[in-house]
Amino acid sequence: MEDFWQTCAQTLERELPPQQFSAWIRPLVPVAFDESAGVLRVAAPNRFKMDWVRSNYCGRIESIAAEWFQRPIQVKFELDAPRAVEPPPPRSQNGLQHLQQPSQGRGASAPAQPRAPQQSTYPGDGPSYNGQNNGSLPAQQTGPYSGPYTGPSNGGAQHGGQQGSGDAGGARAPVHNAKSDLNEATGIYERSRLNVDLTFDNFVTGKANQLARAAALQVAENPGTSYNPLFLYGGVGLGKTHLIHAIGNSMVADNSGARVRYIHAEQFVSDVVKAYQRKAFDEFKRYYHSLDLLLIDDIQFFSGKNRTQEEFFYAFEALVSLRKQIIITSDTYPKELAGIDDRLISRFDSGLTCAIEPPELEMRVAILLKKAETEGMPLPEECAFFIAKHLRSNVRELEGALRKVLAYAKFHGRAIGVEVCKDALKDLLSVSNGQITVENIQKTVADFYKIKVADMYSKRRPANIALPRQIAMYLAKELTQKSLPEIGELFGGRDHTTVLHAVRKISEARTKQAELNHSLHVLEQTLKG
Ligand SMILES: Nc1ncnc2c1ncn2[C@@H]1O[C@H](COP(=O)(O)OP(=O)(O)OP(=O)(O)O)[C@@H](O)[C@H]1O
């Protein structure tokens, strides 16, 4: 594995600009290689990097691995290093009321003078800005916070594969003249961190996301006036990030002068940390409060970060009062967010909150067909159905599977058909089929609702048992290949109509009850490991 990783790293080092290689590939550590399953596990130092690397480099690493091992290899990313620590709120625990003055305590050890965060361990650490600070230059600080807001911080956005990044979150501070250079040299996409590839045009719509898409379009057409904030939530890989980039791209297309900024919440935390280190909150505010559109992704990362929440609160108030648009994504709906101040939660709730659900079969098929077409390798419909039937959880997983099938067919010189899909996805399919059994579901749901597993088969019908049992039946139908009678049998010999009733009831209820839907997401993710 080490030999492979060395070769892989060398290959990528040759292929990528040095900043990208240092920022994204160098920090990766191979963890284990499961020879029989053909699965290589690789650790990334934080979630932001993990997601980025997964979205942008996974395919390439897998193809290098396929060449090296002479067979398809699946690369799985996982988290490695501890999370960042943000500065304390200025004076009190309850955060939002107290703005300026960094506090004492841990913060007291922060530098008295602004300095370049060269030793930064914050999660948003990224590469230097588009090669302008390539590491050979000494990091200099011209003003307390001159970098990120003229040449914005690395927000984790994806610019058509051209990863730009700023100093906030970067391993180094901007060079002395970065401000003027960046103003001239960087275009709108570098400033906004928008990914030009994520648009409304290539966002496939279905029941699962039509409301969210309609709201997003409405907001893109009438920013600041229709729904403010727009709060989109849903499980991993369901298209939240795609949709908010689409809004940003649409707004920029309509008005190239619009001040748009996409930022991942972890990066915002990192910006707060830097503003604190450099005593540069004025500049921080000037930048964030002057945007026309702020797109902030995965707000759940603000959990427990009081100072960040406070700064965000002020940015929020400033922008909304100026009728500037804010769009937020999260893995859950506002009231369910843990460790977030109530005042923020009530503000998140004050605009429009929309869920994005896992895609239904037809939508999964449509997504696969569209993605394959974009790749220039049309996929026969029966293959799209085959993949979509077996992989149900999210779009990212579908994309990964499609990449595998296309690479496998190319590598083995075979025409794409269901047999190729079966071979290419063998490991993936056997893992997911093997893991999720009805027994597994019964146990997981019973644990989740704190009832006995035996209640899954019993005839008892109090509500606190009946509902989890119906949920378990629903999940059994969704996540296994069992028929309704088979499921009924495994639930204490119940009739298939009882199972059908449960499946219909839960699938309808989850579209209306956000809390239930969230619990189902958690259960689905748990079961899928
Ligand atoms: N409806 C869709 N149509 C086309 N592509 C989609 C759709 N939904 C998601 N995708 C693609 O799936 C991938 C994952 O989507 P995205 O990153 O937007 O998910 P997310 O909900 O933000 O996930 P996370 O919570 O993990 O950040 C992206 O490549 C995105 O383009």
From TrEMBL:
Q: Which GO terms describe its molecular function?
A: ATP binding; DNA replication origin binding; lipid binding
State where composition is biased (Gly residues). Answer: 153-169
Region (Domain III, AAA+ region) residue ranges read 193-409
Give the region (Domain IV, binds dsDNA) as residue ranges.
410-529
Which Pfam families does the record match to this protein? Answer: Bac_DnaA, Bac_DnaA_C, DnaA_N
Which residue windows does the record flag with biased composition (Low complexity)? 105-120
Superkingdom classification of source: Bacteria
Where is the segment annotated Disordered? 83-175
| Bias (Polar residues) | 92-104, 129-144
Please name the InterPro entries in this protein's record: AAA+_ATPase, Chromosome_initiator_DnaA, Chromosome_initiator_DnaA-like, Chromosome_initiator_DnaA_CS, DnaA_C, DnaA_dom, DnaA_N_dom, DnaA_N_sf
UniProt function note: Plays an essential role in the initiation and regulation of chromosomal replication. ATP-DnaA binds to the origin of replication (oriC) to initiate formation of the DNA replication initiation complex once per cell cycle. Binds the DnaA box (a 9 base pair repeat at the origin) and separates the double-stranded (ds)DNA. Forms a right-handed helical filament on oriC DNA; dsDNA binds to the exterior of the filament while single-stranded (ss)DNA is stabiized in the filament's interior.
Q: What is this protein called?
A: Chromosomal replication initiator protein DnaA
Q: Which organism is it from?
A: Pigmentiphaga litoralis
